[in-house]
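Chain and backbone:
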Amino acid sequence: MRRRDLALAIPALLCMKPGWATESSTPTGAVTCPGYYPHHLQGVCLDEEAIFWSFTTRMVKTDRAGKRITEVPAANHHGDLCHHDGKIYVAVNLGKFNDPGGKADSWVYVYSARDLTLLSRHPVPELIYGAGGIAYHAGKFLVVGGLSPGSTANRVYLYDPAFKLDREISLPGGYTLMGIQTATFADDHWWFGCYGEPKILLKANEALNRVEHFQFDASLGIVPTGMGRLLVARGTHSRERGHTGRLVPASTDSRSGLVER
């Protein structure tokens, strides 16, 4: 590289956010996870080289083109997941979801990103309606999950890296069906995928005290790739064969929240 070209490249390298993949390694089109699975896709995350898929009772690692690298069985119910510092963190509920009596059994399971070896488990009993989604930002893990019918607001829980509760926040914006399914932080905002008819996308500021509602389906997974672009998960189901998963590109949009592109 010529000296002038190197000088131009240095500022761009300094502006890259830690843990984000480079432009050349980030998927730019749809990516399909190979195979069929007994239960539906719950969430997806990326590291610098691979994609990680949570299919409720299966954890799958593929390369960025969708070629399977490894697959391991998982306790029912493994939910949404996130990557941080060489590990995969999964929101897990071994009890009942959305039960008015709070009969969940909520955990965060931690896997090696290299080979999906289970490394540790952390109880998160504060999620009494079931842990279902997790994201990492600014030194904290945010965990979300189910919601009892008739509740007036979702709640989000922030934990330190040892999963000691930092604080609990009531999220403005009212009830969403069965709470929040997926979570990520991108472009200075939190993004939450929810069920419903139509399915709802919540976009919250970093402080989690302002929320916008959109009609967009991010309930099976949502992954930031930088510069206003994300990947959102889609899935199909066949009674004979099972469930599938794929990622499709999306972009932020002021009127729709996100739009597929």
About this structure: The longest strand covers residues 242-253.
